[in-house]
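Technical annex, item 7. During the second reporting period the consortium partners agreed on a shared format for inverse folding records so that results from different sites could be compared directly. Each record opens with the tokenized structure and is followed by the designed sequence. A conforming record, contributed by the partner at site C, is shown below for reference.
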């Protein structure tokens, strides 16, 4: 087709017997936003790695801006003006925003980089695109949403003409999401193009012109967004009817059970020593899901780590069944029946070089049913692995597949299968659906509800407002290190929560 900015034609790529991409065609026009959708493991990342030159396709070719693009050469894509905003940022933490933007930037004047000139250009671009950021701020002090803005500015200043965003909104508050979508529209107005990978159908409908859906490595369908609905997109993704994500209403808050966890005036620092969690207080009871909304930088990571025994609180107390556990470590928490689902599961809780089965056994290797009288029970381990993989819909050839060969979403499912497969007393779930497709998201939520119904106390920390409202029997917001607006779900006011997430409300006591 003439006039296209990007044409990927007949892209195929296999890993052993796994056919990650099968004759995939993808066309992007100038000034077009394309939403790339698909279930976990459907081949989205592989296709983008091919486009980016990180993976050489077995078959197929790419024409960009009328020219054949050298496949398998990352530099070719960059030089052509293709930029990708990854989920894991590539900024140098100890440097300032301007310094990061100057790294490898050919727009700076000669070998003597002109700091003031760079700062002026940053301000200029930031204002033009609504991506305000202080050029002199150190990156380590920025929240995730701000780091993302720096990454986008870096791409723009290097002349990106096609921007690829990999699940960019999963770290943003509702106002920040609106701002990002607004930026994408402005970027499009200037004739640039965007490929937007997301599991959130609503965002695609809000901003994209065209959607392409992958299923099992193939294009399951491509359509103009005008005329598409959430239901039609979901149907294309899974090939059958699905219910809307997290549609089931929360169970009527049982006159909740026994008091399990008491958190009082808890404070904790982040890795760089900043006290992000300042004064958090709440109770968690058996048989309830307490959902806390909040975006990065407001203390949720520190709260989760402190409860899991991974970070030592600077002030305050944690009581489990009336016993003070503030100073205990992670092993003691585990022994007390507290399961922890950290945010960055692929990075922190899976061993990439180990198989799915070994990862599933990791915490319980010395115990039944994995071990008897000091011997590993291979048969039992295998049966349990297969059962958990089926339960959690982990898509892989066998339990022997190394974790690193799984798609991002399937890695998450392995970590979840391990933590939720046991029968924990208390679950601390930090962004448990991050990176999961709608089907898997629904599954995780159902699983947490089931645990709740069996009497587990669940703390659900998430930046997804919709999910917080869908799963919480009680909901609140973690804002500037404090728990605010903690109310039964039925009394929750969506707008108020959105405002509180953005830091607009004051703290209230529990
Ligand atoms: N390095 C690898 N070795 C073996 N198999 C791989 C490798 N990378 C990807 N795969 C397989 O290719 C298939 C497609 O994976 P891909 O990462 O492209 O999916 P995805 O759509 O990006 O999924 P997600 O939404 O979970 O991130 C999966 O079955 C995955 O297990």
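Designed sequence (site C submission):
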């Amino acid at each position: 087709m003439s006039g296209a900015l990007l044409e990927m034609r007949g892209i195929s790529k296999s890993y052993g017997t796994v056919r990650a991409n099968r004759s995939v065609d993808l066309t992007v026009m100038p000034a077009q936003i394309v939403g790339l959708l698909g279930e976990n493991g459907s081949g989205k990342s592989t296709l983008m790695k091919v486009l980016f030159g990180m993976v050489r396709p077995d078959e197929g070719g790419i024409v960009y801006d009328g020219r054949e693009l050298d496949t398998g050469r990352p530099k070719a894509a960059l030089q052509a003006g293709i930029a990708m905003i990854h989920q894991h940022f590539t900024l140098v933490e100890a440097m300032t925003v301007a310094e990061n933007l100057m790294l490898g930037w050919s727009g700076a004047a000669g070998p003597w980089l002109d700091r003031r000139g760079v700062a002026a250009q940053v301000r200029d671009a930031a204002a033009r695109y609504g991506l305000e950021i202080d050029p002199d701020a150190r990156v380590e002090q920025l929240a995730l949403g701000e780091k993302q803005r720096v990454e986008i500015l870096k791409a723009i200043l290097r002349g990106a003409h096609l921007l690829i965003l990999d699940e960019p909104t999963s770290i943003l508050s509702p106002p920040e999401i609106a701002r990002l979508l607004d930026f994408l529209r402005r970027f499009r107005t200037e004739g640039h193009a965007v490929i937007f990978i997301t599991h959130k159908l609503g965002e695609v409908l809000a901003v994209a012109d065209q959607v392409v859906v992958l299923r099992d490595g193939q294009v399951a369908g491509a359509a103009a967004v005008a005329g598409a609905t959430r239901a039609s997109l979901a149907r294309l993704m899974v090939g059958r009817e699905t219910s809307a994500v997290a549609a089931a209403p929360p169970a009527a808050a049982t006159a909740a059970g026994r008091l399990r966890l008491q958190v009082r005036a808890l404070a904790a620092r982040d890795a760089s020593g900043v006290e992000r969690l300042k004064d958090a207080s709440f109770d968690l009871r058996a048989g309830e899901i307490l959902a806390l909304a909040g975006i990065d930088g407001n203390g949720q990571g520190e709260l989760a780590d402190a409860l899991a025994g991974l970070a030592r609180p600077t002030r305050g107390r944690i009581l489990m069944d009336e016993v003070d556990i503030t100073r205990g470590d992670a092993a003691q928490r585990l022994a007390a029946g507290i399961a922890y689902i950290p945010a960055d599961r692929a990075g922190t809780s899976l061993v990439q070089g180990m198989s799915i089965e070994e990862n599933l056994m990791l915490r319980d290797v010395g115990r039944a049913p994995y071990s008897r009288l000091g011997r590993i029970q291979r048969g039992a381990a295998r049966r349990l692995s297969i059962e958990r993989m089926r339960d959690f819909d982990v898509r892989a050839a066998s339990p022997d597949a190394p974790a690193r060969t799984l798609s991002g979403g399937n890695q998450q499912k392995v970590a979840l299968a391990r933590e939720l497969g046991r029968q924990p007393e208390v679950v601390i779930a930090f962004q448990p659906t991050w990176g999961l497709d709608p089907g898997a998201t629904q599954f995780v939520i159902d699983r947490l509800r089931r645990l709740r119904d069996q009497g587990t106390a669940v703390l659900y920390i998430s930046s997804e407002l919709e999910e917080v409202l869908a799963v919480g029997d009680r909901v609140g917001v973690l804002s500037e290190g404090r728990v605010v607006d903690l109310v039964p779900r039925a009394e929750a006011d969506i707008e108020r929560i959105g405002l509180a997430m953005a830091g607009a409300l004051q703290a209230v006591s529990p």
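Residues 15, 18, 20, 38, 40-46, 405-410 surround adenosine-5'-triphosphate (CB under 6 Å). Residues 107-112, 243-250, 505-510 have pLDDT under 50 and may be disordered. All partners now use this format for quarterly exchanges.
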